[in-house]
Design brief:
The chain is α+β, with helices and mostly antiparallel strands. The protein contains 1 helix and 10 strands; from the N terminus they run αββββββββββ. The strands form 2 sheets. Strands 1-2-3-4-5-7-8-10 form an 8-stranded antiparallel β-barrel. It has a two-stranded antiparallel ribbon with strand order 6-9. It starts with a helix and ends with a strand.
Length: 224
């Protein structure tokens, strides 16, 4: 006949094992529910967004005696948004863009330039305010000059005659109209804050020997 104490201990051990398994199951369920709830909340209260930008620049440079936003160039890249509240956002872009200037038919004949072509990698830091479908934007940008080409009025390459600082800082103002929640058209204006022209061995330079670029950008934005 089995020992009653042994049977009692065996049943108690089985009860303890079953109770432990239930506790573990409840614990895992609570953890899973917490993670799921956190993910659902993060989706509802999304703090970060990403977007794609694609469009073109119309630019000119004050100081080259050429006038009008005649230089067309590419403007494309990516954007990361941080949502501050329902209306305010902060963003950082990483862009490839082309700026410069180009001679038009009625430009000043005293200018020795035919074309200035500048290729940049640019990182604007922007603040955005949204009301209805319109988003107003302001901020500053740092551009790193990758390469440039300067052509004189007679078509010869004059790049080596001009030394440009590769670091260019800009003031940026703009606005975006969103047709859909994730699709909009962006227009902004930018102007260089610093003068990148270090020296020139030739050419007529206006504006006190400075190059100050100004650009109008038109592009689409798609939020992922």
């Amino acid at each position: 006949m089995p020992n009653n104490n042994f049977c009692f201990l065996y049943n108690l051990q089985g009860l303890s094992t079953s109770f432990t398994m239930k506790i573990k199951s409840i614990f895992c369920l609570v953890i899973f529910t917490g993670i799921f709830s956190s993910l659902s909340y993060a989706q509802q209260e999304q703090r970060f967004e990403a977007g794609l930008l694609l469009g073109f620049n119309m630019s000119q440079i004050d100081g080259d005696l050429l006038h009008g936003f005649n230089k067309l160039g590419l403007n494309t890249g990516i954007r990361a948004y941080a949502r501050l509240d329902d209306r305010w956002k902060l963003s950082l872009d990483l862009l490839f863009m082309q700026q410069g200037s180009s001679r038009a038919r009625f430009d000043d004949p005293a200018s020795t330039f035919d074309k200035i072509a500048l290729n940049f990698v640019e990182a604007p830091v922007l603040v955005h305010f949204t009301d209805w479908k319109i988003q107003a934007t302001a901020g500053f940008s740092y551009g790193r000059l990758m390469n440039y080409e300067i052509t004189s009025f007679d078509g010869t390459d004059a790049t080596d005659s001009y030394d440009l600082d590769p670091s260019i800082f800009s003031l940026v103002l703009g606005a975006t109209y969103f047709f859909e929640d994730n699709l909009g058209i962006n227009i902004h204006w930018s102007k260089w804050i610093n003068n990148p022209l270090r020296s020139s061995s030739t050419g007529v330079i206006g504006e006190g020997g400075k190059f100050i670029g100004r650009t109008i950008t038109i592009r689409g934005i798609y939020l992922l």
